[in-house]
Specification:
The chain is built from 9 helices and 11 strands. By secondary structure, it is an alpha/beta fold. Helix 5 links the parallel strand 4 and strand 5. It starts with a helix and ends with a strand. The relative contact order is 0.10.
Length: 239
């Protein structure tokens, strides 16, 4: 393999129809991408961790674990682009796939050239976002700091000039989200930040704390929803 080929973006094709998977691989290779094929939903997360692909083409109907479950699993540890591929054209499936964190969807039957065009467009956008992402994150953090003031030494917080009467757990939850505006945290990730004594609690405990924290933020600024739920994944501070 030449150096150019070795550094080409890798597309993980998750498809249990061998002929279709091979066809997609051929077209993507011809367009300059490396490919890897996975046919079982239960193996996708491990393969993604191992290979760190640039993008995942994810079929909805898979053996072992369906595409929506796989999408949810991938989003628990990665923000790599995911394109859902489905023959089920009901609107609810499309919307649910995107709410789970998919970046786009393609309906079967499709043209392999359309798939390549979508992959190219998404990866181009991802590269552009990566180039500007660090600066945008800093700008968002600086702007947020003007209206949300968190004092770790005193365990106090103010939002738009109003004091937030937070419990220690709510304070740690807000601090975690505010330190990375726009980043999606899974419930497990938030639990690790909330309870330093590693007590055994259910992940739904986070939902209860989020509800209370939202209520206190809404009282200070009812016109703005600061904390957003990402269906099937977790929460983020939207700024």
């Amino acid at each position: 393999m030449s150096p150019v080929e070795a550094t080409a973006p890798l597309v993980l094709i998750v498809e249990d129809e061998p002929k279709l998977a091979a066809l997609l691989a051929d077209y993507l290779k011809a367009a300059g991408y490396r490919t890897d094929i996975c046919a079982d939903g239960r193996e996708v997360a491990a393969r993604a961790r191992l290979l760190n692909p640039a993008l995942v083409l994810l079929d909805l109907m898979l053996p072992g674990k369906d595409g929506l479950e796989v999408c949810r699993e991938l989003r628990s540890f990665s923000d790599l682009p995911i394109v859902m591929v489905t023959a089920r054209v009901e609107e609810i499936d499309r919307l649910l796939g995107l709410e789970l964190g998919a970046d786009d969807y393609i309906c079967k039957p499709f043209s392999p050239r359309e798939v390549v065009a979508r992959v190219r467009a998404i990866l181009r956008r991802s590269r552009s976002d990566a180039d500007s992402g660090a600066g945008e994150t800093r700008a968002a953090s600086n702007e947020l700091a003007q209206v949300l003031r968190i004092d770790e030494a005193r365990y106090t917080a103010e939002f738009r000039g109003q004091s937030l009467q937070l419990t220690p757990v709510e304070f740690r939850l807000l601090k975690t989200l505010a330190d990375a505006p726009g980043r999606v945290f899974s419930r497990d990730q938030l639990l690790d930040k909330l309870y330093t004594d590693h007590r055994i609690v259910t992940d739904r405990t986070v939902d209860s704390h989020i509800k209370n924290l939202r209520r206190k933020l809404d009282a200070a600024s009812p016109e703005q929803e600061l904390i957003r739920s990402i269906y099937g994944v977790g929460y983020k501070l939207d700024w």
